[in-house]
Design goal:
This protein is an alpha/beta fold and 228 residues long. It contains nine helices and eight strands. It binds pyridoxal-5'-phosphate.
Length: 228
Amino acid sequence: MNTELAERLHAVLARIRDAERRFQRPPGSVRLLAVGKTRPAAAIAALAAAGQRCFGENYLQEALTKMAELAALDLEWHFIGPIQANKTRAIAESFSWAHSVDRLKIAERLSAQRPARPPPLNICLQINISRESSKHGLDPAELPAVARAVSALPRLRLRGLMAIPAPSTDLAAQREPFARLRALQERLIAEGLLLDTLSMGMTDDLEAAVAEGSTLARIGTALFGPRA
Ligand SMILES: *Cc1c(COP(=O)(O)O)cnc(C)c1O
């Protein structure tokens, strides 16, 4: 087993536990999604051997290659990269979750292409929460109608929202967009949608995300080291 990766995993899990305590979140309420983009299958296998089960990938071809190599392990795969229409079939067939759905048309394709046997594909709608920072993500004004339409699709299960805010180094400034994402989620819940997931927080803004209600933190660099 790769002890350096196991130590990094335990350090990240400790960071999550500390943030839960500091911000009065119930212990265990924030799950870790290990983001393995650009990392070899062996590094993912090492984290799996140390107990990590949920992995996120951004690039479809790279992901499918690694998933085939690691098929003997019981891992849960989350697609977190931009989704073009020509990728929906492979995502619907191979992943448990897609976090980066930002158009109804993409959701409709994922539902139509999800095979009958696995459970429905878990979905987070990606919101463009800091408008200047990204061309990806739904405009918050479009969210209520899209969320209602997605929640009605038969082979999807809408779980919540995801965002990648503009980078900032100040905790208060980092919390602000996450608080807005949580408010959007709470409005949908008040309208009757059963949502339980806020996919927010990366290596540099994990504590701010936990403070504002993250339930699924997507961490790459703190686990695997800097990307090349
Ligand atoms: C790369 C990536 C992450 C992880 O970022 P780190 O800063 O390396 O922790 C999380 N979410 C998405 C969508 C990513 O592309």
